[in-house]
């Protein structure tokens, strides 16, 4: 006879199962809160903490390097005399370590915003470079081109007399220049002579400084750039590091639509935690004077070492005015025009953002640009793998594990009365000057820290879901015991009833 003990066992198992499920269920929000608190202590800036001090000068702990590759013009005479296409040769690489320094940090009253001034200091790394800073190359004569471009709307007398002075001084469309001078600036004595002449002859001074360099900034030490005044969100994990203001503005005041002009995303040093590929990530890049919507690589997780990441890249469509309707706000006329149709795809006119210097930005080797730009310069070889901007982001923390930010600076050439030797040039001639690659790779120590955080999260998941799973299993076992006992008793009762019927039947008929 089946006793009552199976029901007691089932009751004990069911009670224990319920307890385990309840405990496991309670641990879900508890462990989630523990993880959130660990993220907050690691991600959210708080004055005086180690993470905050590292963030202020993060490139001292996680090195950042910027590689420069110039385009040496091989046929300057043929370009000037017969208007032939420019032929270039990509030079050796020149590598600088970049120190990011955030100064004048200040939290607002509610600690929901943090403002700072961002500076970059460059130190030449000869051992990592294949060339020396004293190397020479032939490039567009940018100091004189800059002056001539600013004079293009002056009267013909100003332009023609300036042309005579340019000829007298022996300045041409191209010039031999040292790498360090082109990057960080040098005092161009002929430019100073022209400025003095224009001031004395016509009472105008189009430029305030005779020193010119692609990354030269007046008032800053050499090889130091001021990247602007930033305000970033620090209120919660969902929005931390997003740029809310740059140079005191929530929009740039440069582009032709509110959507294009708006500042979106982070500065690329980190993203908000819990990165989700279904939600677009935005990058605000002050070098480009705009925000970009980054495109995710395929949905599969990527690996940097043993750490899982989400990969993002700057798509060619980001610089397309024809294929992407949302980019029409970035449409700008050429530097020669005050108005008119915009440049072809793949080139961005940042003249209004860069103190009216006639520079255009693109991806290296005109990657993804209109074929006219690639066809007009010989020696270019765009390569998606080599020339595309990419980010690998650790999704839990939003930290950048690996990044490669690429940009090409191009000179815009046009027929200018005040600049001799430009009569043979076709309008809308864009000549590459240099392309840069700012690379970052998280240190092994930091990657190990994030890997440990993932291990902790996995252990939490194992504990809580094991408790819930075991509890559910015990409930199932209890139900099975009850059902089996019930069926056994029912079968036994049916059998006993059949035996009684058989006993009442007569033996003989």
Short description:
The protein is of the alpha+beta class. It contains twelve helices and 19 strands.
Description:
The chain has helices spanning 5-43, 50-56, 58-61, 76-82, 142-150, 156-168, 179-184, 189-202, 258-261, 371-375, 384-387, 444-504; strands at residues 64-73, 86-107, 113-124, 136-140, 174-178, 186-187, 211-212, 224-233, 243-246, 281-285, 290-296, 302-304, 307-313, 347-349, 359-362, 377-378, 390-393, 400-413, 429-441. 34% of the residues lie in helices and 26% in strands. A hairpin with a 2-residue loop joins strand 12 (302-304) and strand 13. It has twelve helices and 19 strands. The model has no long low-confidence stretch (mean pLDDT 86). The chain has a 15-stranded mixed sheet that branches. A two-stranded antiparallel sheet has the order 4-5. It has a two-stranded antiparallel sheet with strand order 6-7. It is of the alpha+beta class.
Mean pLDDT: 86
Helix- and strand-based class?
A: alpha+beta
**Uncertain spans:** none
Distance between the termini: 36 Å
Total DSSP E strands: 19
- For the CA atoms, what is the radius of gyration? 34 Å
Biggest sheet: strands, sense, closure? Answer: 15 strands, mixed
**How much helix is in the residues?**
25-40%
Strand content: 25-35%
* Molecular shape: elongated
Q: What is the helix tally? A: 12
What is the element layout, followed by pairings?
Layout: H1 5-43, H2 50-56, H3 58-61, E1 64-73, H4 76-82, E2 86-107, E3 113-124, E4 136-140, H5 142-150, H6 156-168, E5 174-178, H7 179-184, E6 186-187, H8 189-202, E7 211-212, E8 224-233, E9 243-246, H9 258-261, E10 281-285, E11 290-296, E12 302-304, E13 307-313, E14 347-349, E15 359-362, H10 371-375, E16 377-378, H11 384-387, E17 390-393, E18 400-413, E19 429-441, H12 444-504
Parallel strand pairs: 2-16
Antiparallel strand pairs: 1-2, 1-19, 2-3, 3-8, 4-5, 6-7, 8-9, 10-11, 11-13, 12-13, 13-17, 14-15, 15-18, 17-18, 18-19
Helix pairs in contact: 1-12, 6-8
